[in-house]
Automatic annotation (TrEMBL), chains A, B, C:
Belongs to the pseudouridine-5'-phosphate glycosidase family. The gene is psuG. It is an enzyme of class 4 (lyase). It catalyses: D-ribose 5-phosphate + uracil = psi-UMP + H2O. It comes from Alkalibacillus silvisoli. This is Pseudouridine-5'-phosphate glycosidase. HAMAP family: PsiMP_glycosidase. Mn(2+) binds at residue 138.
């Protein structure tokens, strides 16, 4: 397995010296934002993690290898290349075998982080049960990954287009702890709140780290959600954004937009209906997650 | 992992000497019955297991440790304390890390039993797919635990408020054997029957033990259901109890009772609509499960 | 675990010498076809695999053992015995413990193949989510087996009576790669096409083998689907067969045919409504899968 892993020097030394490391995904770079904002975002996220005393490890697949940490040049490749594969569990081996360029999703990044021994991962929002998922059975592989892979995911909840209630039911059924970081409400990505609670609120990075360490010391396989609401200054109103999404879903249906085209359509709508504010909110929550992930990774190593 | 386990002397010696041990849960003590009936029940269950030549190990979480076997004083704490946490898989590590008092559910007890090397566990009824679960996706973590954790659960079926049919489908999909102990019908907790069959009927504890041993010797991970109907003298009529539950569900809906309040509301209704007989039935089935678990645990060790 | 495995000399030598071996199921023999066609089919499948330079290992449970490879006499027993058990995960240990005769399903064969170290398995079609499964939750244990057991299954898609769309959603959620062999469309058993795509098309056995090897070298547990459409000369028309199945389902409903009786009823209907052509198609696809499995097993060993 080691033959597939390729580390930057910085990340390798950090792992060897048991210094805090935070994993970062590459799908948000290749598929989440346009160039050059994606590259700026990717750099800024790394910078924020360094400010917390941790080492960022942006993860991607390239040249038949899993890159744990990307160089400037590699980051640029992910930010500018066309047709980068989105790599979830089912795609992971194939994209390596074919030596293709693969941007890792939440599930894909968790797999790579566990292989590399990285315990904390910062992202925007996880995948989950899609709206009407009780009919379509469209459920992100991020959830089954959380059920089995030993990585904590710092996020602002599930992606806004998803069904939060059923996503939380799925996580409960599969024994995945949902920790609210300084909140007792499960956040809804663009907004700080939702109609749903968390399993328990924890306010200190040290206490989060202890809970995670205890879980893995006990041999309880699987990840954890650290739900971290978007900072107030950048938060959107829950009801407003929910209405915007409902409107976008209806419009998608009326226009016979189905399958993989629904999500980008809705996100575009949300962006235009919020006068672009949703993009700012998205960036703000990613930065905030990076900061909190840095704190938790640091606390985890000192533990 | 060993550092989290704390055994009573009796249980530790039994495990070291490969004597039969039966695990027991603590949620039924802290959340299932009022004081002092809960304490009486807890003691009587232990007594019944001893009468079968096995050692009872009531399991709970306390002072940052997993207690495998509880002292008189500890049993009393679980029976009388307010706000004891219900500990399923997602809560397990956190309640230990926070040194809180945690009563283990079926899932939580299975985790602890496996860590301690106990193969047989007696309870009342398992959790499962909730009624209307095909819409809500409310599915107990007991089912995913049965899919992965190597403990046999002796029970009188699933808790009566659940959807038996979909619970059995879920177990089949996840490869969990459903053994009918002296029955070819899956029991429905208060009643000895239901509309559903079992995977196979086994009438001898030795044959159950052999089937379990073969499963685990083969490396087939996961638990098994030993479905043991409530004794006839205490059994309620299937159609009568089903009508009572349907009535209670309708009343809950009409009164906008939702979420975690539904189950206690229905159970209260069932109790009052059966003039308290449901409580007697519940005790009778727990005692019977303890007896059968003792027999199976003994047969398993002699195997 | 080794004590439960019993190999034919041919299979044992092939495994020791790292020669290609292809696993075959026995349910298709005991429950899929009438005698003597089932025996002819079983022999011809083995012959086809040998023609590809691989060794066939038909798998069944007998005398408390898992037979890896069946003798002429044993094959005959499976082809002619009444009341042979269908062995999926939940039945596996019990049928061994009881020393009963057990024909392995896709799930059961995968378990046995993994225990024996066989990586490639040829069958007709896998089980999956049943039509209306979003309501009934009737989902084959083949899917959870694919999520966890390291065997590649060469098939012509899912059995035709199933819900292809939700079956593919389930596989995606659980991270199972769905590889189209020389096709970018997921085949629908009797027909070469469906409304659904595959995760990726691969045209060379060597490339399939490399993808599988990479997956397992990475420690990514679970199987893979190699979807191999029925040869054109034997293929039925997608819309025609779909209409026939819909008609059969309606007739089953009108006649109150439910549960385990639905599938044989529909298959009988399909057979009579296609003037028996569906049986020819079924045989043709099984032979074709055996051929492709032989090629992939050979490529896997040379890798
Ligand atoms: Mn999906
Ligand atoms: Mn629930
Ligand atoms: Mn089924």
């Amino acid at each position: 397995m080691e033959q597939f892993l390729s580390y930057t020097k910085e990340v390798q030394e950090a792992l060897q010296n048991k210094q805090p490391v935070v994993a970062l995904e590459s799908t948000i770079i290749s598929h989440g934002l346009p160039y050059p904002q994606n590259l700026e975002m990717a750099r800024k996220v790394e910078e924020i993690i360094r400010e917390q005393g941790a080492v960022p490890a942006t993860i991607g697949i390239m040249d038949g290898e899993i890159k744990i940490g990307l160089t400037e040049e590699e980051l640029n490749d992910f930010a500018t290349s066309e047709n980068v594969h989105k790599v979830s569990r089912r795609d992971f081996a194939h994209v390596i075998a074919q030596r293709e360029l693969g941007a890792t999703t939440v599930a894909g990044t968790m797999i790579a982080a566990e292989l590399a021994g990285i315990k904390v991962f910062a992202t925007g929002g996880i995948g989950g049960v899609h709206r009407e998922g009780e009919i379509t059975w469209d459920v992100s592989a991020d959830l089954t990954e959380l059920a089995q892979t030993n990585v904590a995911v710092v996020c602002a909840g599930a992606k806004s287009i998803l069904d939060i209630g059923r996503t939380l039911e799925y996580l409960e059924t599969h024994g995945v702890p949902v920790i609210g970081y300084k909140t007792n409400t499960f956040p809804s990505f663009y907004s700080r709140v939702s109609e749903f609670g968390v399993d328990y609120q924890i306010d200190q990075p040290e206490a989060v780290a202890k809970s995670l360490k205890t879980k893995w010391d006990l041999g309880l396989e699987g990840g954890a959600i650290i739900a971290n609401p978007v900072p107030e200054h950048a938060a959107l109103d829950y009801n407003k954004i929910e209405n915007v999404i409902q409107e976008a879903i209806t419009e998608a249906k009326n226009n016979n937009i189905t399958g993989k085209e629904v999500t980008p359509f809705i996100l575009d709508k949300v962006k235009s209906l919020t006068d672009g504010q949703s993009l700012e909110t998205n960036l703000a929550l990613v930065y905030h997650n990076a900061e909190v992930a840095g704190l938790i990774a640091s606390a985890y190593q000192e533990n």
